[in-house]
Amino acid sequence: MACRLATMRCRLLGATTGFSRVFSNGVDGSFKAPSMKTSIPGPKTKELVAEMDKITDAKMAAVFADYDRSKGNYLVDVDGNVMLDVFCQIASLPLGYNHDAILEAVSKKENLSGLASRASMSVFPPKDFVQKLKSSLLTCAPPGMSQVTTMMCGSCANENAMKAALMWYMDNKRGHADLGPDSEEFKTALYNKPPGCPNLSVLSFDGAFHGRTFGVLSTTHSKPIHKLDIPAFDWPIAPFPQLKYPLEDHVTENKAEEERCLQRVAELIDEYNAREKFVGAAIVEPIQSEGGQIGVQWSLLVNLDLFR
Q1: Cα–Cα–Cα angle for 258, 156, 280, nearest 5°?
Q2: pTM of the predicted structure, to 2 decimals
Q3: What is the mean pLDDT of each run of 10 residues along the chain (308 residues)?
């Protein structure tokens, strides 16, 4: 979808601002402007989509990309079309395509073994793992946070964050008691029964997108197609504040809107706790992207934290 939108946007730019249909390279090898040689999808993409559809689902394939030629914010497809990628895939390429520093890093000899030998990081971490964490992720850690857990993607990061929060909740509820293999928790957990698998829930917000893997899908509420035919947990869903802008001109209305949503959060927590589906965690986006570029003010997040 992002690629289709980027293509539409590029074609609109080309039509309305007079971009040349013959592109030229910038000083660093990047492109100066989009250049459309065919309609989208082009003939080579159509051919590859047809081949792909024989072996896997190809309905989402918008274009086949030529990543060797793509550079900076410009995506080149197999038909030679140069498109301005205003989304940088799904915001997964903040430095753009084939950034020189990234190419240099992945080609360094000291990094090749890590790329070639996929390690189980928690059991067999590489010798330089600690130093790499200290010199990268921990340099931008929020105040008060001194530990980091690496994950493969956003969905699995959210999955494991929810697991960690719920385990913390139960550990506190048990008074940090050690559990042995003969405990009732161990005996019941294997068969999805309490107390080993407790009746806990995670509160989320309407319009949210936290991923498409099974667990976080119960906290995703942006598009019905993401959730269709997939069983979901009975977890509380609170309204997300619909703020008015400019913020400084709507202080009173926005405060009332936040209070309305926080009141509903409190009601949902009480409702689910009364049903013994205790709310052990909440997940919220400071800015909903798939939900429509809807942001919240810091005050809501601070007040939400008070429910702990």
Answers
A1: 50
A2: 0.79
A3: 38 34 46 93 96 94 95 95 90 90 91 87 90 93 90 92 95 91 93 95 95 95 94 96 92 93 95 96 88 76 74
